Every structure is written in structure tokens, then in C-alpha cells.
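Observation: inputs received (chain + adenosine-5'-diphosphate).
Thought: call the complex predictor directly.
Action: predict_structure
Action Input:
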Amino acid sequence: HSQMKYEPFRKDFYVEPADLTQLTEEEVDNMRMELDGIKVRGLNCPKPVAKWSQCGLPVSILNVIKSMNYEKPTSIQAQSLPAIMSGRDIIGVAKTGSGKTIAFLLPMFRHLKDQKPLQPTDGPIALIMTPTRELATQTFQECKPFLKILGLRAVCAYGGAPIKDQIADFKRGAEIVVCTPGRMIDILAANSGRVTNLRRVTYIVLDEADRMFDLGFEPQVMRIVNNVRPDRQTVLFSATFPKAMEALARKILRKPVEIVVGARSVVAPEIKQIVEVQAEENKFTRLLELLGLLYAEDEDVRALIFVDRQESADNLLRDLMRRGYPCMSIHGAKDQADRDSVIEDFKAGVVPILIATSVAARGLDVKQLKLVVNFDCPNHMEDYVHRVGRTGRAGNTGTAVTFLTPDQERYAVDIAKALKMSLTAVPPEINAMAERFLEKVKSGQEKASGSGFGGKGLDRLDKEREAVL
Ligand code: ADP
Ligand code: MG
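Observation:
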């Protein structure tokens, strides 16, 4: 970097509105409490905003928000918008479905509008990194309503689709790149590095950073980030913030403001959590019952069913089709075009039931998704929280039903804790299973951790809570 000549750029656009300046510290504390218990750490964090008009955004952007009928900023948005608009690096932690995307998109657009126009050989100015193809596509879609009005262009780059089409997109020029880290590195290296470059990047987003970390993308992320000018603005969003991620954050962020929303309730209260003990051979019948109940109430709803392996997905798909339920499946073995069209059909309601493995459905945001069924129990805490968080989005209600087989005592311990942490009563039979497991641990018949669910996941959440308290 010392050998590069970077042009100065502006990243601080925020002027505190007068009505916020008047607020006392105590009033601000109350405001944060009412906004789902926002906690902030770090020096000089701006006060949270209550209205879109306080964010310092241009009318053109405000108009698009209005057209989307987003009445006011969500809690994470209320605090992170003024912080990012001030040019600060931030760590934003909030549960799934809380509106994190908009929280980093709006300041990004403001940032972009202030930068010098792109020259023909310039690479992007904003770089959004996400863990999965699905999430990249979704974020790219969320940009679209703003692009035309603001005169901006975006490209989307992820593995599993032909790289040459994506290279062509890059060559046409774009201010924004939404990508998965691996594919971005491929594109940077393509044609001896002539496709694009990072010289103009001044705004970086790491979305679902916990997931990127879990999937082992840290080296790729570091490689990209280290090649971007050090005075850039970097924002990191995540549903959880495990201690192990702090080191990464420290390496990447400068004097960040840390914003944590509602760290105590892991699963949103809008989601009704049901956990049932079901023998393996009874699961299917019970699933049919649940689907029957769901569609008796309302026809235009979606259901998402999680299984643990591709094979199980295909088998369940076959069984449900035989019973006349229109459904599709999505998992890692399907090619990208397939997965894209499956998600599109699911969103549109062409096919209302989707069977998925965890990775494939990460970050999926589908309105009308009323029911999540963990047909196979997730094997760690964070996976449970994320799967269940596919429903109950943006204040809507939803139900999540989890099947445990009688031998899955190990998982019962942590599911019970997950329920307690989100203030949901634990069914007696789940408590009993959990106790049996803990007895076995005491007597040395079982090990407490090992699957990841027993130890690490919870440990992390505990630490995260400690950090906030
Ligand atoms: P997260 O990244 O936190 O999991 P998303 O950014 O995917 O959540 O947002 C979840 C849903 O909330 C999306 O459907 C989005 O359109 C909607 N949404 C975002 N901001 C608002 C808002 N201020 N008011 C109402 N809905 C919103
Ligand atoms: Mg998100």
C-alpha cells in the first residue's frame, strides 16, 4: 500500500439532527432499551435514529424506502445507520430477519454517490462478501430497486455458475460487487488480473461473518481485505459474534463501534418453537399432519423442511410427491442454475414446500414462510437458531417444529437451553432426555462435547452474552 497512490475519498456523511442532539444520555439509554435492548461498545457511537429522515440519506434513497413500505428503521438499522453514515467501522450483531441488509446497503449507496465516477479500467468501489451463493444473489436482488434511480451498477459473483459470464459483467463496469470470497479471488486472478482490481474499493461489507468463519473462508476474506487500501470503511454483520471471531474483526476493522441487538433472546419471540420426540418411523406421518394443518388454515403459505443429508432430501422429496404434495429439494449437490430456479419457484409460490440441507438454505428470506420443520434435528446450536430463523421474518409470525428421535438425548440438552434462552417452556420429555444425557456424562458413559452442539455452540453464546452484559 505504501507504494500505491490512493486518491482521498470521503466516508463521513452524517450530521446529527437537532432533535437527537437535544436528547439526554438517559433518554438515549431508554431509547436503546426500547429498540430491543441495543448495546454499544466503542468510542463516540452516534445516538440511534428513530426515523428514516434522521439518517442523512438523500431524498432519492428515501423515496425507494418509502415505496417498499418500510415504515421505520428496525433496531439494528436505527443504531448502525448513523454509525456507518459517520464513516465508522462497525460490528453489527442482530438475529436473523432483523434487517441487516438494508443497514449496510443504504450507507453504501450514499458513499458511492459521493465518489468520483468510475473510469473504464476501474474496479468496484463497494465490495460485499457473503458466505453462500444464495445469499449473494439475494443481496444483489435487494440492491436492484436502488440502482437505476441512483445511476449505479452491481455485479454478482459466486461459484458454481460459469465464470465467463461473470467476467463479462465485470468488464462492463460496476460500482458494487456482491460476491462469495472464493469466486472473487478467482475473478481477481483471471486473465492475469486484467478483469478487475481492488484499487478503488473504499467500502467493504462482511455479511453473515459468523457463517463465513464457520465455513472456513477466513483466509480468502483476509486475502481480499489485505489488498484493499487501509483507510477504507469496513462493516461486519453477523447473527452471532463468537469470541473466536474477535481476532478476525480486530485484524480487519479500525476502531469499530460494536452494536449488539437483543443478544439475550436467541430465537425471535415471533417464532413459536415446538420440539417433539418422534420415533424415526413416525416422523413422516407427523410431517404430513403438520402440513395438513398448515394448508387447512391458509393456502398461500410456504413450508421449509430441513434434513441432514442430500440423500434424505431426495427420499423425503419422493415420499411427499407420492402423497401429492408439490415440493422441491435443494442441497449442495445440485448445480447453481438448479438451485436458483428452485429458490425462485419457492419464493413465487409455484412450489410451496422446500426440502433443504442447512447450507443450501442459509440466509434464505421468503415472505409467507410460516412453517419450518427440523425433520432431522440440527446438530449444533447456531444451526438451530439459523434454521428456525428462516420463519418469523420482519415481524411476521411463524412456527418451527423440531423432531428429536428418542436416542438423540445429546441434542436435547442444548435444545432445552435454546428454548429457555428464548423464554419458551421446555416440554417435560425433552427435559427428561436432557437429564438422562447429563447423567450419562457424569457417569462417564457419554462425553459432554464432541458433536459441537454440546459444548462449543453454547459456550460461544454464553460468552457472547457475557460480553454484552
Ligand atoms: P437479516 O440480514 O438481519 O437476517 P434481512 O436483511 O434479510 O435480515 O431482512 C429481513 C426482512 O426484513 C426482509 O424481507 C426485508 O425486506 C425486511 N426489512 C428490512 N428492513 C425493514 C424495515 N425497516 N421495515 C420492515 N421490513 C424490513
Ligand atoms: Mg442477512
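Thought: report the result.
Final Answer: The chain is about 45% helix and 15% strand. The CA atoms of residues 1 and 184 lie 20 Å apart.
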